[in-house]
Structure formats: structure tokens, C-alpha cells
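Troubleshooting entry. Yesterday's outputs looked truncated, so today I'm pasting the complete records for two proteins to confirm everything comes through intact. If either block looks cut off, that's the bug. Protein one:
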Amino acid sequence: MLGCAIGCLLLVFMNMQLLLAYEIPGNISLPEAILVHGSPLGYGNFSRDSVRKRRNIVCKLDEHAERNRQFCCKKCQRGFYKSSDCKGPGLMTECKPCSNRTYIDMENYISRCRKCSTCQEDLGHVAKSDCISTQDTICGCPKSQYQVQAGNTFQCKNCSECQNGRVLTECVGYNDTLCSCFFGFYFTMEDRSCRPCEKCQDSDCEKHCGSLTAPSFGLSLGHSPLLLSMMALLAVGFILMLLGFAWQYWRRKKKHMYCHVTTVSTDHPSSEQLVTAQSSTTYLPGHPVSQLESNEMEKAASESEKHLTSAQNTKLPDCINDVVKAQIPEKPWVLYAVVDNVPPSRWKEFMRRLGLSDYDIERIEMQNDRRYREAQYEMLLAWRERTNQAGSTVEAISRVLREMELSGCSEKIQESLQREL
């Protein structure tokens, strides 16, 4: 048996050698061809050339190589899938839109859309954005929670609170709250909170806390005569300051009382009195008025007009006229009273109307950078120096404010000066 088997193997081997040495024509039909080294006789060269040609196709980013036709086709847009191949090079592939609850979020040439994902409610996920034809469902965590990666999905955890500190980075996405701790506290990554420096026990927190122990003087409130003396002096100084404010308030109020207008004239009755006098004579219906009574009525009316004219032409009290016509004194509080009662948005217009040039205004502004109130004060000083004594008066300021339709500001300035002058 063993000898027969060895003989058969030798016979097969010899036949194979004869077949390899024999040249088979390359134009025989495919079923009759004998495979040599994995390629059908008569088709080997064609197959290798075809593969080489197909590999040489280079398409643009928005195209793809059609496998069977060996040319490039346009890809389908987002939200569409390929329903059939294009008909020629550079032509658009026949595409159809994705159906409900399916999507494709990139340019493609696949034959069907992908199924939309669903958020895992058992892990606390919520839908941040619903699935549409060009985008899958976007899942996230509820408000005041952040995402923690867990394998192929994520879990939701509560955001850390910045107690004893302020929020440096908001809690959003995969990032928990990052806190900047107040003085005397340090941030720990274990529970992402601000702990008191008194609980610091490692080198990391010691770098942040350093030496925060308050200096001890070795003196208590009940055993320190020096501390008691200092507190007594502070209390006395505070009381004296309050008394000084009260004195200034009483002094200003006293000056203001003398500037009130009492009566215009004691010799002439007021307009209300004249009207009352005229209406005191009554006339009954059906009783004609005599000529004498008519003359008396005309005379009374004439007298009332004279008294009214006299009352209207009466001059203001001297204290008010003195304030209006007074020259602006060289006292800072006077100029600051003007500064505080003119709107900042109208200040440059106010100074131009007073006669200060734009050059001086810009120069003073540059000299007092970021100190606008001081610049306003310097502008008034410059205006006062460039104006003679007759021109730098409260009346000039009031006239300009009236032209600017800021009469209320003028009245406030006069009231302020009344209290001080």
C-alpha cells in the first residue's frame, strides 16, 4: 500500500512538470484556461493593467472614484445619500434626502443614512440638540452638572460650588467649576473646593497659603493701657468732627435765612388784595350802576394796574444781586460748585461759550489725564485768569447756562454760593 501511494505521487509530480514546460496559447476560452500562478492564461496582462490604471485615478475632495467606470463623481451633500452612480466624469451622483430619524453629517457616497442616536436617560443624559438630517442627536447633562467620561459614554456629576471663593471657569461640558479662592483659603482638587489655610497639611497648600498668621502684640483689650488710650483719642476725634459738621451746617443755614425775600413794599397792596378790594362791592340784578359808581370802578382799576406794574418792577433783594454780580473769588470750593452743577456731557460747550479756546481745553485735558474733575477745575482757573474782573462773575456763568437752556444748573450754583458767601 505504501509503495502504491509513493508511485502515484511520483506520477502526479512528473505530469505537473510537463504541464509547466508546455506553452498554452493565450487566446483559448476562459473555462478552458489553466490557472498558472493565480492568473488565467490569456487574461493576466489585461487584469494587471486595469488595476494599475484604476489606482492612478486622483479625485478632488468633493469627488470620489467610481469603482466600475474608472472616473470621478461628485459626492452627495450632508443630509443626502447616494441612490445611483453618476453618468460621467465630474457629474453629480444621484442623491436623495435622509428620511426621518436618520442623518449624514458629511459629504458622502454611501448608499443609506445613519440612524439617529438616543440619549441614555438612565445615566441622566438630556438632549441638548435634537437629531436632524445633517446632525446626530447631541446629548449632555442637565444644568448645574458636567460630563465625566465613562468608557464609550459619559456620566453626569454635580458641579462644584465656589464657597469661600469666586468662579474662575464656569462648569460646562466636560469641565467642572474652577474656583479662585479668597485670601486665607486654598483650592483642593479632591473635592474641588476652597479650604481654610488652617487645615493645610501638605507642601502644595503651603506654597499658596504661606504665612498667614496675624501678628500678635501680646496685649489684650482689658490689659493694654496704650490700646485703651488710642481708642479714647479716636472717639474724641470722631465727636469733634461731628460737632464741626454741625457748626458748619448751622452757619450756612443762618446765612441762608437772611437772604429770604420778605415783602416787596408795605405802602402798596398786593395783587391779591387789589382783586379782593374790587370784588367786595356787589351789585344786585336789575339795579343799574350810576355814573359815579362807574367812575369809581374805573379809578380803582387804574390804581390796581399801577400797583401791579410797581410790584413787577421792584428790584430783587441786595443779597441775591450781590451773588449774581460778584466776581468769582480765588477759592477752590467756589469753582468746584460750578463744576459739580454743570453736566459733564455739556462741559466743553460751556467752556467754549465762556470764551476758553479749544487749544486750552485740549491742553488742560492732556495735563490732567484720567482726572477729569481736576481738568474742569483747571479750565475754570484758566478762564478766570484770561478774563478781567468785570467778566469773571457769576452773572456771566448764569447767562451762558441760560443760553444752553440749563437754567436749573444756574439756580443751583447761585444757591450754593449764597450759602457760602
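Protein two, checking that the full record survives here as well:
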Amino acid sequence: MGLKRQGECQMCGECCRIFRLTCVISEIVAQHGSLEEAETYYSFRGARFVHVDYDLDRVGMEMSIPCDKLTADSKCSLHHTPEKKPLICHRYPMARDDIKTCGYRFR
């Protein structure tokens, strides 16, 4: 049985400022020759590796891409109008993430 998301949004805005992506190490190596080469390639494009898990063949990357719906104080301007929020906002986070300010937990 998979982990279940519990809790609620604390409006910290962290998930709206940083784009996070999980990639497959073996596919990255096939494309770039090595993980080190890929890390250099992505760093020039503003992305950085934040977690590498060889056992699961996964690498976590992130880059700063703030949502255009964030207010000056980093709050979501659509938070109280759910019908206007994009689907990704309703579903995020879909997996465990290491955002300490996030109100969601997975159990």
C-alpha cells in the first residue's frame, strides 16, 4: 500500500517558487554520458541536483521558477479560489518532499 497524503496547505509558497523534478539516473547517464556531465549541463540551465539515490535509480533536481500567481509576500493569489487553480496545484505534492514548511505529510 502506498503512502497517503495528509494535512493541508500552510500557504508557505515554497512549492510555488521552486520547480522540483525526479529523474531516472540511468536515463540521464544514457543521454549525458555520466551523472557529473549531466549535473554540469543542467547547472548552466539553472537546475541543480538536490538528492541522488542510486538504489532507486533516481535523482532529484530543482530550479527556481516562481509562479506568476504569487503575491509580493509569496502567497498564492488563487489559494481561496480553487476553481481557478491549475490542476498541478491541487495535486501537489504527490510524493514525499523535503519542504519543512509544508503542511502536507505522507504516511
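Both blocks look complete. Sanity check on protein two: The first helix runs from residue 14 to 17.
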